[in-house]
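TEACHING EXERCISE
Course module: macromolecular assemblies
Task: Read the component lines below, then compare them to the predicted structure of the full complex.
Student: A.B.
Group: 4
Components provided:
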Amino acid sequence: MKIRITEYLDIDLAAETWCCHGCGQKFGNARDNYKKGLLIAERPLEEVHQPLVTGEQFSFKPDPDYCRLIELYCPNCGALIDNEYLPPGHPLTHDIELDIDALKQKHGI
Amino acid sequence: MTSSYYGRDEEVVQRLRPEPMTAEEEAAQAGIEDIDFDIFRHKMHMIALEGKETTMKLGASTAMRWGDVAFGIFTAQGDLAICATGIYHHAVLGQIPIKYIVKHWRDEPSVGVRDGDAFFYNDPFYGGVHAADMGLAIPVFAGNRLICFVGAAVHTGECGGTEPGGTVQNAKSKYYEGLQMPPIKVGEKYALREDLLNMFAAMNRDPRTMILDLKARLAAARIVQRRILALVNEKGADFVIGALRRVLKVTGEAARQKIAALNDGVYRQPRFLDMVGSEPGLTRINLTVIKKGDRLTLDLTGSSPMLHDKPLNSFFQGLIGLAMVYFCGWFFHDLPANNGLLEAVDWKFPDDSLVNAKGEVSTSLAPVVQSYFAHAMFLCGARMVYSSDPKRAVAAWFSGFAIPIYAGVNQAGEPVADITPEINATGAGGRSDMDGVDGAGAFFATVSDCSDVEATEADRPVVYLFRNFFNGSYGHGKYRGGAGAGIGLMVHHVPWLAMGSMGAGAHFPSTLGLFGGNAVPPTFVQTVDGSNMKALMRANDSPIARSLAEVYSAMNPEQGERKFNDIDMVVRPRLNGDTSYISVSGGGGYGDPIEREPAAVLRDLKFGRTTAWAAQNIYHVVYDPDSLRLDEAATTARRQEVRQHRIARGRPYDEFMAEWRKLTPPKDILKYYGSYPDPEAGFAPQALPKAVNM
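Instructor-supplied answer key:
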């Protein structure tokens, strides 16, 4: 039984695994951080935030000293599962840590 | 004073949840029929709404005229039972000053609480935000029996600090911030004390607005008092006292039921601020939401240290107030908005943290701290609710703070000091089934407006060169954020005007997307001193910029000393004809941009809501640029290429982290952060002693 958790993430409750909602690819233990099962890349900021000014301190593009953009992809279908704007080197966020036992109980598994 | 000392009451600010039911309230419950209770709730909400509308109609400050108004009806113990507002935090936090009044002044012979009294407050320790947020409350008596309190809280644009316009970006302690009044009786026997009004006027750069706002709050409260007394006459005092209490009880029970239906788990979201006042610098607000059974716990452990000589701090109660903005407006959107909701919520704030201000530190920029925290609530909340109710998962609206501030003398010779109303012109976040609304309002003041520009120009010494949706202001996504406003302002009619702006997010985006949606772009202020704008307008032979996009185009004919300033820009004199350009941004994006319907991208392109650059480089839509006709097959193929490119570019977690962990921000921007990356793990970064008195 798969439970929808976010726009792009399911949990297979019986197998206790994270899955891609789009293609069903398994991402690893549902009790762990799903990000460990994804492909990760730092995206050049100017690819996403078009600078409208050149040669100035501010340009509508984040300052890379403060902020980097990390994208997390499904290794099978290339879906963008999520992203994070983080200072350089800051740990990725374990943003969803579900009580799998309670979830299984809720769904009668 | 019946309490023991002249100092802050640390106990009363803890009492955000409903007080224990009194014997009087308990005894009244038996006489309340369910149908009468439902009618009562509706009627009281309409009464509160009349209070809110009256406050808006009579007030003078920008926030009051355009709807950043909270009107509340509070029990005799001070609990918020009914409110009419989108600015829920002021309503919820408004109960602290009232509980203070009940605790300290009701039985104090030199003060007392009597029919006809009026109490004013703006001390941020009790109001929870900052000194520019001011409130007024009155007791409602039926005979000698105290039935309830009613009152309004609104941001008045000026409070006499060392910088004009309500916030002090160079504040080193609370003593820089101007007027900070714990609850004080300003009226008795149905008359305001003129000597006290005179004092308030003397301590404020814009006395006309200060006094008009104060009187507007009181006038609205008196109308609400009349309506409530009419209800008391009809239904009896026991009924009204008991029903106000029952509102809290049923709300708390419903809140716990609603939470119980969500998935148990832990949800986390760090937020990064990029300024500490007038100085850039990185700090972290670290939110963990623990959902277990029918309770939520908000844990701020891991946030950056308190800033001893900077204004970027907040009292903990202010964050709970902003949590209630999310709870009332989104999470518990179908429940009554009152502090009964907090029956289901616990919180944990670390000591020595910018989210738990102590002592004499400044909280002048607390609204920024609190709005960033509220955004973390949006993101944690979306992850919590999606599984059961995906339509309630919404990316954050713009943080709200990219606000021009001004002070001086207007074209009629009257002093003015305030903010511009575009604080209420920001975009909503994208959501699981639709784009964010363009120019939706402010997430913390959803029932608000941004005024007609002509109304603002009528008594403010500026001319709007333009104000319209800015297509570079929001986060892209499967569902994009709503567009915010780009504005151009020129000093006009007067020799000079002090101008600056207040906000954050010039370096690090203030407003994040959801489930892969993009953050809003950074925002900043472009100023042109000695601008030739008036000459261009007189000559009328060259097209001046009519949008922010045109301001930044190579065709912009404006000349002068152009500067690019941080969005947190301390006020400075601007001369007649000088111009300023600001993006009051939009909402965060929702979902993967290459899943956006190509037709929606082309529709945005047609109406100027997006750019050709974004259509091609973010959304990867292939189309004919002249006819805007979609090439569906080429778009599908292009988007598949993007997916394959992602797979080729991405690295497994361990491999990526091995390189990523080696990076760190430059040391100079971590001066106020605490140890990096976990602020609490190492040294206390500041050289100043904990107690400063500057």
